[in-house]
Amino acid sequence: MSDPLQIPHEYYQQGDLTIGGISSQFFSFFDIITFVKHPNLMFIEDPVVVTKNYQHVLALVFAMKEINEDPRILPNVTLGFHIYDSYFNEKLTFQTTLNLLFSQKRTVPNYKCGTQKNLIAAIGGLDSKTTFYMATILSIYKIPQISYYLFGPSSAETHFPFLYRIVPNEENQYQGIVHLLLHFQWTWVGIVMLEDDRGENFLQTLMPMLSESGICTAFIDRMPLLTDFSEIITAHEGTVNTLQLVNNNKTVKTIILYAETQFSLFFIFLMYQVETDDKTNVTLGKVWIMTAQWDFPAIEFHKRFDREVFQGALSFAIHTNVVQEFHSFLLTVNPYSQHGDNFIRDFWEQAFSCLVTDPSVVGESTGGTCTGKEKLESLPGPFFEMSMTPQSYSVYNAVYAIAHALDAMDSWNQVHTAVTAVRSPHPYEVQLQNPNVSTNMNIMFLLTLHRFLRRISFNNTAGDLVSLNEKGELESGLDIINWVTFPNKSFSRVKIGRMDSWTLTDREFVINEDVITWHSMFNQTHPRSVCNDNCRPGSVRKKKEGEPFCCYDCDPCPKGKISKQTEMDICIKCPEDQYPNGDQDGCLPKVLHFLSYDDALSINLIFMALSFSVITALVLGIFIKHHNSPIVKANNRGLTYTLLIALLLCFLCSLLFIGQPQTIACLLRQTVFALIFTMAVSSVLAKTITVILAFMATQPGSRMRNWVGRRLAASIVFSCTVIQGALCTVWLLTAPPFPHLDMDTLAKEIVLECNEGSVPMFYSVLGYLGFLALVSFAVAFLARSLPSTFNEAKFITFSMLVFCSVWVSFVPTYLSTKGKYMVAVEIFSILSSSSGLLGCIFAPKCYIIALRPQLNCKENITRRNN
Questions:
Q1: pTM of the entire predicted model
Q2: Confidence of residue 630 (pLDDT cuts 50, 70, 90)
């Protein structure tokens, strides 16, 4: 068997029980395998150090130190640790995981040689690949593994039942991204992700959530997956395409970036390389939204890189709190005092650009030699942070979770019994040293530890509750971080909000915009990332053909509709009692619309009605005064009085149409009008028939003498009026008129009108009145040439012509008007037709009575008749 690969970086501290750890701090390079010698020997020295990640190691050491010094936790048990590095490489991850379980000198699975490390649990790793590489081996031996930054799918629990995650479920981040985009109203975004299964799973989960929330993507770009810096050259072209894609989409101000910490090292380097070699401007003026997997670590040759492109970036992170003594602990770290720590030498040399020499020359001012007086707090944030990072906070909680689980077991008297048991060979190992010693206690110990870890819940020293759910995931929220960069290539993480998704209440999303530092190109104002400007109130979105649903035109609302908010898809109607304002973004109350008494039009109509009423009354008075004169006595004096009274009532009944419609007014309007006009028209008809009968009675031998008289005229008027009265009675008893609010006729007013009730009865009443008028006109027209007293037949014909002309022209005029003007047209028609009858029939008679009394004599009547 050949010599194994020697792992240069480890940190070991012995204890009764050992907790293993796999960090991710070094990038190492491997030669191409030539099969000339064993590939394990191809490890190249002087690896590249991700200096920021050394804090993960220190967080584990610090947690161990606190636990061992705390008498309240495992008072009689000392915890030890053994930490290796994954080197961001799958082969070395498997190797170091096996080293945690078995001999360090020669790795032979299921054999332990030399000192027993009593491994009871392992912590790691930083990304999903490292975690699953570890779990593949640890799950065989039922070793509990707590990953401190695995945000992978929940299905990991099924494949690796002994794997725990001291981070929340990854899907919480998807909700957080959607909440963040909706909060800032960013509906037009781009997505850059890794070209692997994790990136595709991220995309398939996030895209439906974005669509449901009205957010669409301008582009989706997949970055090639890099596992080593040797692949940088092949990824160069892909990075150029990505940056060009981001630059060309000017309207996209928000970029969602999904990648793990390892990729951030490559991505930052590639952006700098593209800007330097290809003279391609690195995209500025964008808001980058990163998931919790992303970080801004740096390696030595990153020191010259400018991070202004990420100024104002937003990201999610595991909720952290201040661990009081950690800062003081970091101040004590020194490369010459960290016994057993093989990480610190390379870290210190690359962080401070010096060489760690033999301890005997410490403090001497030799050129390029580390004095040990260098301060970690002097390093920029990308290289080392003095506050505990989210990853370190997870490591810290992971150590305490194992300790609290052991402490809970200790209360059941199981730990001290197992301390001896775990020192015996593993249950799956070949028993070489003590073949007769039973290993059942090892199995029981590990299974019991799993049960206690599954339901662990405690408050850490920072005051936060650390609790794992039934899936082995941390029940905790996410912090929202704003990244602020500085000219010295450093940066600061500013906590601007939090999202709690594990509480019993609804999801809580809190963000403080006042403390956000945006990119300088936004002038510290809220950036906008939309495909086009929002549609203002008064307009609606109209989809553009062939474009995503976030891209649209804005069309104004059609007449009569409004949109009160921005980004409306449909216009809505106002309530019936309201109407749209001029901008069509709100509703105004409609006013009542009716022919009121104080209206100028009403005043004129009232004046006309009263004036004609007075004139009619004067005419009636004149006729009564001269009731014995021939001109009054001619052609039935009683009919004349009846017609004048009917005309007087016609003028007065028009007043019923003015004012706010009430129930009584609506009942009387049309019925009184119909009855009175029927009486007037039937009186005219009786007058005309009387003229005809009088002429026929003068013929020799005519029998019409018996029909000429007052009874016939009275009978005509009475019978015609009774028929109309019967129609009105049926109308009122079946479906009478009633007040009605017409909301639709006028856009800005509510028409208060009288609804006619039964439309057939209404038209029956008007039809009967029109029938009488046509009969009267026809009879008068036939009798126009007959000799009559004072040419009365001709005057009646002309008056009926005027009457019918008025009401024929009334129909189209009435139908073309709305609201109170319809009522005004009807009133005007009543006054016009009534005044036509009054003027045409009685004006000539009044002229003779008042101005030509000499013509008002019997001789004149006889002469005119002859």
A1: 0.69
A2: confident
